[in-house]
Design brief:
Layout lengths: L4 E4 L5 E4 L3 H5 L4 H14 L1 H4 L1 H12 L3 H17 L1 H9 L5 H21 L3 H30 L4 H14 L2 H9 L4 H22 L14 H5 L15 H5 L2 H32 L1 H29 L1 H24 L3 H14 L3 H13 L4 H9 L1 H40 L16
Antiparallel strand pairs: 1-2
Length: 436
């Protein structure tokens, strides 16, 4: 083994060099990407597949749509809220990756089984919303953190693959849920078993490298000066306590809240909206396209972000997501199937892709020292987005119908796009920023 050294670059970032991925893992670090992606494929079913079974839950049990939507909102709050505590505990050695993944596997499976067999909304809240939400959040935070740690020199493309898998995994489930409407319990039980095995199996071999680890190539200090990879390096490194006092954090947090609100609104309400106007088959197709477009868009954006600039892509994505809401409502009201599919794809490419960009923006704004914890803090904005996009949206749907809800969602996404254009790196005057 080569001598282990710690280097610093001109931006104060630290690099631990001298250990190869094969020495630490016994295999190439690419394995981490595919392990994390496989686990995320399994975990994402609870978010992107939920809308596909909402009509069945309402029909079989007679539950109100508002109550079912509220269960999804609580799930999203739990899923997003656990990201920062998981990163904080992991950085202190209290919650290593295998333990977090094992717990996540059990909790995710419990959430799915609950949806298949619960006879009351209270049980759904406890089993799916709380346990399933916490489990999915543990898997999400652990897998994204692993990519951040093992691929410090190309986080964007790898984060795009892993976060894209979170959406892709639900597509087969959505199709089967539409094709087998009377076999919901069996489908969810089988899915739960697969989710348990996949996440637990991936978690058993998932490991984190030593803090500040860097691969053999490229040379870190030369990489730091390469403008193709470091267009706008952070001025300094922010700890979580400093992050919370930063004005840029508040603006970025609000952008994430609005983006999450619109995405979660679509996931919660799109299937019901389309089913009422075009039938269950078209509703399943719309949800599947939304998930597939989100997954594909995240992979694509992960590859393009460094080259085109995260700010520019984020702004256009949010504006596209806002336009998608008006396309969806207009197409639904006129029963245009092609328009609904187009709107679902545009929504997925828009609001659904923001989390991949968030990973890179956190590093670009706040540095490397506490990137996983800082990401967890900003990712928690999804919880507030759930309150707006699912909880408050239920009131709008009840009082003004889907027309008012889609209009509000569109305006919120457009507002987020405008606000994202005003984001600046903390500590750097806007006039000194290079063109995005």
């Amino acid at each position: 083994m080569a001598e282990i050294r710690e280097l610093r670059d001109v931006y104060g970032r630290r690099y631990r060099v001298g250990e190869s991925d094969r020495e630490l893992l016994g295999r190439p670090r690419t394995w981490i990407t595919w392990l994390a992606a496989a686990a995320m494929l399994a975990a994402g079913v609870q978010q992107y597949g939920f809308g596909a079974i909402v009509p069945a839950l309402s029909r079989v049990h007679g539950w109100t749509f508002g109550g079912i939507a509220l269960a999804f909102a609580v799930w999203a709050i739990c899923q997003a809220g656990v990201a920062f505590p998981a990163a904080w505990l992991r950085d202190r050695g209290v919650l290593p990756a295998p333990a977090a993944m094992a717990a996540g596997a059990v909790l995710c499976a419990a959430g799915l089984v609950t949806l298949g067999h619960a006879s009351s909304l209270v049980t759904v809240f406890l089993g799916y919303s709380v346990l399933g939400g916490l489990g999915t959040g543990l898997v999400y935070a652990t897998c994204v953190g692993a990519v951040l740690a093992w691929f410090p020199e190309r986080t964007g493309p790898r984060a795009g693959i892993v976060s894209g898998a979170f959406a892709f995994g639900s597509v087969p489930f959505v199709v089967l849920a539409a094709a087998l409407p009377t076999a919901r319990a069996v489908l969810l039980d089988v899915t739960a078993a697969l989710v348990l095995v996949v996440i637990a199996g991936c978690g058993a071999v998932l490991r984190y490298p030593p803090r500040h680890w860097w691969p053999a190539t490229p040379e870190p200090r030369a990489w730091a000066l390469d403008r193709a990879h470091n267009r706008r390096p952070a001025v300094r490194h922010y700890r979580p306590a400093e992050l919370l006092r930063c004005a840029t954090t508040r603006a970025l947090y609000l952008v994430v809240v609005l983006a999450a609100a619109v995405l979660l609104f679509d996931l919660a309400y799109l299937a019901t909206f389309v089913a009422e106007r075009g039938g269950a088959g078209l509703a399943a197709a719309a949800v599947a396209v939304l998930a597939a477009a989100t997954g594909g868009g995240r992979v694509l954006i992960g590859r393009l972000a460094d080259r085109l600039g995260r700010h520019r892509i984020l702004r256009f994505a949010l504006l596209a997501g806002g336009l998608a809401q008006f396309v969806l409502f207009s197409s639904g009201e006129h029963r245009h199937a092609a328009g609904l599919i187009l709107g679902a794809a545009l929504a997925g490419l828009g609001n659904g892709c923001c989390y991949t960009l968030l990973v890179g923006l956190v590093r670009e704004y706040f540095g490397e020292e506490s990137v996983a914890q800082n990401f967890g803090i900003l990712y928690s904005a999804k919880a507030a987005g759930a309150v707006v996009g699912i909880g408050l949206a239920a009131l709008v749907v009840a009082s003004h119908g889907f027309a008012g809800a889609f209009a509000v969602a569109g305006v919120l996404s457009l507002a987020a796009g405008v606000l994202s254009g005003r984001l600046t790196q903390p500590g750097r005057p806007e006039s000194l920023l290079p063109a995005a």
